[in-house]
Design brief:
- This protein has 194 residues and is mainly α.
- The protein has a single domain, classed as Orthogonal Bundle (Endonuclease III, domain 1).
- The chain is 51% helix and 6% strand.
- It is built from 9 helices and 4 strands.
- The strands form 2 sheets. A two-stranded antiparallel ribbon has the order 1-2. A two-stranded parallel sheet has the order 3-4.
- Helix 2 packs antiparallel against helix 6 (97-117) and helix 2 crosses helix 9 (168-177).
- The two termini are 22 Å apart.
Length: 194
């Protein structure tokens, strides 16, 4: 079965029936995001998700927001070694030293990109021609890809700029989450809203 069913709606199968995951699927995933702070939030959360399940991140999202100054890149860019130690003690987030330090460094790189392009939104959406990419026909269960030429190019450029935890698979997930790529599957009610 390619879709999950809850409250008489067919959805992409991956969200299952967990209410938090369903709400994320229905209200967020695949919708275009152009707010830099929200883009930054998803960039950081996707980096923390590397090697873990997304539901783990969703369950800790409120804690991440509190720990990372509501994902304000200006504030996170100023985090110090003291903040790293504070975050390593915070059981409400993923306590991985490399990912924490990468989040701080990525905030600094994020601000550099904002300065260069006027906004991070202008920069990142340029990798998809400033429009949402959609598969035709829409994907089916078991046929979702994990990377694309666009995520490869974005990953390569971010790495060149000094970003960490931005491999092509992580960037493809980010592009899906922020609506740069719409991968709602055939039969999903969100697909009808295109």
């Amino acid at each position: 079965m390619a879709t999950a069913k809850l409250t008489n709606k067919n959805r992409c199968w991956w969200c299952g029936t967990d209410p938090l995951y369903v709400e994320y699927h229905d209200k967020e995933w695949g919708r275009p995001v152009h707010d830099d702070q929200k883009i930054f939030e998803m960039l950081i959360l996707e980096g923390f998700q590397a090697g873990l399940s997304w539901i783990t991140i969703l369950r800790k999202r409120a804690n991440f927001r509190k720990a990372f100054a509501n994902f304000n890149p200006n504030k996170v860019a100023k985090f110090t070694a003291k903040d790293v130690q504070r975050l390593l003690k915070d059981a409400g987030i993923i306590r991985n030293r490399l990912k924490i330090k990468a989040a701080i460094s990525n905030a600094q790189r994020f601000l550099e990109v904002q300065s260069e392009f006027g906004s991070f939104d202008k920069y990142i959406w340029g990798f998809v021609g400033h429009r949402t990419l959609r598969s035709s026909p829409p994907p089916q269960q078991g046929k979702l890809r994990a990377t694309s030429a666009e995520s490869d190019a974005l990953s390569k450029d971010l790495k060149k700029r000094g970003f960490k935890f931005v491999g092509s698979t992580v960037m493809y997930a980010h592009m899906q989450a922020t609506g740069m790529i719409d991968d709602h599957v055939q039969g999903c009610f969100r697909l009808k809203r295109r």
